[in-house]
Write a structure and sequence with these properties.
36 strands, Immunoglobulin-like, globular, 2 domains, four-stranded antiparallel sheet, Methylamine Dehydrogenase, Chain H
């Protein structure tokens, strides 16, 4: 059939902010190797994310996780309803307006019936919204709500027309968009799961044949424009009503931009390390930056562009990052969990410190020795809380060169760091013990 639902599988540069970074958090899924395919940020404290099976087995999952305290604690669950949801159903997309209220669109496997489900209690229970009448022959691609009333559910063509619904009462009733309000369906054309963007009251959805469908009135009327004929739209991101970016091509790496709301698109030759797992626009970074992520072998990490995709600067090049989402300066990227308490998502930490603000080598409770050293040194932390301890080490350009995260107990924590593979010079050590953060300099001779 289709789709690129599943993605493959800390930001630091002087251009954004020296030594800015991603902080690893635990998504709390009961099963390991859960990857994150979409992140929805409601506000600085509240975010929802949906998961897929990243083990390689490709098993259907309806798992999601959410936080209401900025990611300090994520709570995971699965979409459940009465009557029971077909086990072959999977989450195509999620949208949320608060820590309690969210909607998901589920798709089936060609025989099972998906649909739109809503929760009002933080995901503990879900109710199917029957008037979005997707059936076994339908395929739900994505869903979005602007507020508690106005939403759109976007699906593939059913027989001859796109199957798209809109609501003005929170999904109590959904109205099918009539054929007169829809563009013509090309032979073999469909939408791409989870590939959409919203800017103001406008919504944009990608298709497999190089077109982007657009509605400027919250889903009531739709038009289509061609980005690159015959090439699937793998990413589409609009930073405002006029300016957006689409990614197409057999390698998911050809960039096109628009300055007129998608009426026309221009190919952008690019340089630098462009990654193909996730794409978002971050208005709070460097006055506005596109951020891309990578989870595939040899192409992991994060990069950013401040010139509409022409140049991409590598940031983190060590860790797998899947989906990415930003709201202002608040941002998260997905990853893969090791257990319910280790990993799965990264939070953007902005500017935790500037180089000239680093404390002396021996900061209260933190020791780095020997210092200077030959590339191998010990980090000792006394009077720590016994929480999960995270160590990150950066060079002065801001590249992440070492990371460790583990649960510890006792009155003294000691960790050996090996930087013998890296050049001589100064490195910045950052240790986070629960809510406490320690920084120090380490000199490699």
């Amino acid at each position: 059939m289709k789709k690129n639902l599943l993605l493959m599988g800390a930001i630091l540069t002087c251009g954004i902010a020296a030594n800015a970074q991603w902080l690893r958090q635990a998504t709390a899924f009961a099963k390991p190797s859960r990857g994150i395919s979409q992140i929805v940020i409601v506000d600085a404290n509240t975010s929802w994310a949906i998961a897929y099976d990243g083990s390689g087995a490709g098993a259907p999952t309806r798992d999601f996780t959410r936080t209401s305290n900025g990611g300090t604690l994520w709570k995971a669950d699965s979409v459940k309803a009465t009557p029971a949801i077909d086990p072959n159903n999977q989450i195509a997309a999620i949208t949320a307006i608060s820590k309690d209220t969210a909607w998901v669109s589920l798709f089936g496997n060609g025989t099972s019936i998906g649909g739109v489900y809503r929760t009002n209690d933080g995901g503990m229970t879900w109710t199917k919204q029957a008037t979005a009448t997707y059936n076994a022959g339908s395929f739900e691609d994505w869903i979005y709500f602007w507020d508690k009333n106005n939403g759109v559910a976007f699906g593939d063509p059913n027989t001859t027309n796109w199957e798209i619904y809109y609501t003005t009462n929170g999904g109590t009733t959904w109205t099918a968009v009539p054929a007169a309000n829809l563009p013509t369906v090309g032979a073999g054309q469909w939408g791409v799961t989870g590939v959409f963007s919203v800017a103001g009251g406008a919504a944009y959805g990608g298709t497999n044949y190089g077109a982007v469908l657009k509605s400027v009135d919250m889903g009531v009327h739709w038009t289509a424009s061609t980005v690159h004929g015959g090439s699937q739209i793998d990413k589409v991101v609009f930073k405002d009503a006029n300016n957006g970016m689409a990614v197409v091509g057999p390698n998911n790496d050809s960039i096109y931009t628009t300055t007129n709301g998608g009426t026309s698109w221009t190919y952008v030759p690019k340089t630098g390390r462009f990654l193909t797992s996730g794409l978002a626009y971050a208005s709070g970074l460097n006055g506005g930056s596109y951020v891309c992520t990578g989870a595939a072998t040899g192409m992991v990490g994060t990069s950013f562009s401040t010139n509409n995709g022409a140049t991409w600067q590598a940031m983190d090049t060590l860790k797998q990052h899947t989906a990415v989402s930003f709201m202002g300066t608040t941002g998260w990227t997905g990853s893969f969990d090791s257990s319910s308490t280790v990993g799965g998502i990264y939070k953007w930490m902005g500017m935790p410190f500037a180089i000239n603000e680093i404390q002396p080598v021996y900061q209260t409770g933190l020791s780095v020795y020997p210092n200077p050293n030959n590339g191998t040194f010990q980090i000792a932390l006394s009077n720590f809380t016994g929480n999960q301890t995270q160590i990150t080490v950066y060079d002065l350009v801001g590249n992440l060169v070492f990371e460790s995260s583990e649960n510890t107990a006792g009155n003294l924590y000691v960790k050996e760091v090996d930087l013998t593979a890296y050049p001589t010079g100064m490195y910045i050590v950052r240790v986070q013990d629960g809510a406490k953060v320690y920084t120090a300099k380490a000199i490699r001779q």
